[in-house]
Amino acid sequence: MESALLPEVQPGGTSTLRPMVPERFRVSERRQETADTWTLELEPVDRTGGIEFEPGQFMMLYAFGAGEVPISISGDPRRADRLVHTVRAVGATSAAICRTQPGRMLGVRGPFGSNWPVEEAEGRHAVIVAGGIGLAPLRPVVYEVLSARDRFAGATLLYGGRQPEQLLYVDELEEWRERGLEVAVTVDIAPAEWPGRVGVVPTLIERTRFDPAAAVAFVCGPEAMIRFSAEALIGRGVAPDRVHISMERNMKCAVGHCGRCQLGPEFVCRDGPVFTFERMRAAFTVREV
Ligand SMILES: Cc1cc2nc3c(=O)[nH]c(=O)nc-3n(C[C@H](O)[C@H](O)[C@H](O)COP(=O)(O)OP(=O)(O)OC[C@H]3O[C@@H](n4cnc5c(N)ncnc54)[C@H](O)[C@@H]3O)c2cc1C
Ligand code: FES
Questions:
Q1: Is 186 in the pocket of ligand 1 (CB under 6 A)?
Q2: Nearest bound ligand to CA 251?
Q3: Is the beta carbon of 92 within 6 A of some atom in ligand 1?
């Protein structure tokens, strides 16, 4: 019998969840990334199959008794058996999610939203530009590109954080370099012994070698960083419709019903969160954005 409480299981054993009904997932691993950020691995409790998702999609994570918030999937799209999320504790709900210990449950809905069009960069240069926690929604792009590195003419990650100790996935950055990703890191503020670059992410765009006519960019981070990075890319000659960005808005339903995430004519949960910069350009000229 069909039930709104049961997941829709696809023939391959994986499934999407019923959009409005949280399903229980157990925290199987919890790793501290920085002072306020944790990565959680979640395994399904109420089903056997995993969750298929595209890079850039998000889930609604529900901390029982605290609330529900949108969080991008930061794991490998080829590992549908588990969900991986990197969460920064900025308020009551995100802090409750970060505190959830291995063995405890979270409610999960999704996946939702549009995805990074990684295939558009095949035969071209994938330029991945991340600021702070913005590397989390972009990590699936890195995994996708590195799983078929020879299909891309070039692959570069430009990553900026506020301070060295706030950088995510530090151990993985070196591994990605060894597998063919050009990685440049910068921080806003650094102690004298910091061997790397100091400055904001858009300054890396100016210094990086790539053919703008053959580049496809994926940009995620705080909105000011997105705007200045997109303008720097376009200033170098990348076409505005080849600059893809991910937008954040508060969300409730995540399925285009409640209007909470509305931004001009777009519902960020349904039409986004990934948009071309060209499509969102007008929104960046509005003062409250
Ligand atoms: C599509 C999408 C994907 C997202 N992916 C991730 C992700 O992968 N990892 C992650 O950590 N977060 C992600 N976020 C942001 C996350 O949803 C918010 O941080 C969360 O909703 C905050 O809820 P809260 O109840 O904990 O805090 P609130 O009570 O809502 O906010 C507490 C304080 O933090 C401020 N605040 C709220 N959100 C942010 C923010 N994003 N950055 C800085 N300050 C903020 C508020 O203005 C307020 O002052 C995503 C958001 C969207 C829309
Ligand atoms: S969150 Fe309800 S319409 Fe987007």
A1: no
A2: 2
A3: yes
Q: Residue 263 CA: which ligand is closest?
A: 2
Cα(85)–Cα(58) distance, rounded to whole angstroms? 9
Nearest 10 degrees: Cα torsion 155, 160, 166, 170: 20
Amino acid at the residue 63: A
pLDDT at 17: 62
The answer to whether residue 15 scores a pLDDT higher than 60 is no
Q: Which of 69, 162, 262, 269, when mutated, tests ligand 1's pocket best, judged by the most ligand atoms within 8 Å of its CB?
A: 69
DSSP SS3 for 31: strand
CA of 168 to the centre of ligand 1 (A): 17
Q: Is the CB of 249 inside a 6 Å radius of any atom of ligand 1?
A: yes
Classified as helix, coil or strand, 169 is: coil
pTM above 0.85, yes or no: yes
Of the candidates 152, 162, 86, the one whose C-alpha atom is nearest the C-alpha of residue 118 is 152
- Given pLDDT bands bounded at 50, 70 and 90, which one contains residue 278? very high
Q: Find the mean pLDDT for residues 32-59.
A: 94
Lowest mean pLDDT among 155-164, 187-196, 224-233: 187-196
Q: Which ligand is nearest to the CA of 253?
A: 2
Closest by CA to 135, choosing from 88, 197, 177, is 88
**How far does the centroid of ligand 2 lie from the alpha carbon of residue 187, in Å?**
34
| One-character DSSP codes across 171-233 | HHHHHHHHTT-EEEEEESS--TT--SEES-HHHHHHH----GGGEEEEEESSHHHHHHHHHHH
